[in-house]
């Protein structure tokens, strides 16, 4: 299997296509399931500052009562998001209480660079909340078969992601999956296959279309020092830079 490259402009185009797909029956099914997972996870997040990066352009949950400030960052400015370079976030180290990567590792030039940037901004005791497409699922078959935008998305293995998180000093507190139905275009067929969701959730079956990981930055037995530095270390945001990534099958 040969590798293909994708430029930053192609990545932005791919992201736009995937965001339009979110308005389809399968896309709406995905968002409903992910909102339910995130609602429960937010009950364990406390502090003042939260950042979202990735696929969704609208908040997945309104449960931000415990977090005073919530920003969304993106590869492009759209009036609601701050434009950033994925490998250079404009936040001070350990200044955020929670970071949500909504398929941010699936749509990027380098998933490890994005994860490193996100992890560096989370304070000790803070959380990383990560949604990703599961390569070992019916959704992953579209990725391997080269169908539509699925072929270019990252589909980072959850097992590999857990290894990365441990190396970065995070402990996984929760891991779950959802969307056992394939991403069909027909709302009628999705309704007919609703029993797959019930069976998958009841018996904790493998093969969910997406996974959700909640990880806490470990404090190693020490009380974290109160961070007095500003969240934004500078008034000017870093410009976008040209780049490319290998759109290889990351689990081969």
TrEMBL record:
Pfam families registered for this protein in UniProt: Methyltransf_11
Top-level division of the source organism's lineage: Bacteria
Methyltransferase type domain location: 89-130
Entry keyword set: Methyltransferase, Transferase
Protein name in UniProt: Methyltransferase domain-containing protein
GO BP: methylation
GO molecular-function terms, A-Z: S-adenosylmethionine-dependent methyltransferase activity
């Amino acid at each position: 299997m040969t590798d293909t490259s994708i430029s930053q402009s192609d990545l932005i185009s791919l992201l736009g296509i995937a965001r339009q797909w979110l308005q389809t029956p399968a896309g709406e099914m995905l968002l409903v399931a992910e909102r339910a997972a995130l609602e429960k996870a937010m009950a364990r997040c406390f502090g003042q500052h939260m950042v979202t990066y990735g696929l969704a352009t609208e908040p997945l949950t309104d449960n931000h009562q415990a977090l005073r400030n919530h920003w969304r960052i993106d590869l492009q400015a759209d009036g609601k998001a701050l434009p950033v370079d994925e490998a250079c976030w404009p936040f001070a180290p350990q200044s955020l209480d929670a970071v949500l990567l909504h398929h941010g590792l699936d749509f990027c030039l380098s998933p490890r660079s994005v994860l490193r940037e996100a992890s560096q901004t989370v304070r000790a005791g803070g959380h990383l909340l990560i949604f990703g497409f599961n390569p070992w699922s019916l959704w992953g078959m579209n990725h391997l078969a080269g169908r539509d935008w699925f072929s270019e998305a990252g589909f980072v293995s959850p097992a590999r992601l857990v290894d990365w998180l441990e190396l970065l000093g995070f402990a996984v507190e929760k891991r779950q999956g959802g969307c056992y139905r394939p991403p069909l275009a027909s709302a009628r067929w999705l309704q007919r296959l609703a029993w797959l969701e019930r069976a998958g959730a009841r018996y904790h079956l493998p093969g969910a279309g997406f996974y959700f990981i909640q990880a806490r930055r470990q404090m190693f037995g020490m009380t974290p020092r109160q961070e007095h530095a500003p969240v934004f270390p500078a008034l000017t945001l870093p410009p976008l830079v040209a780049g490319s990534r290998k759109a290889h099958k990351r689990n081969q």
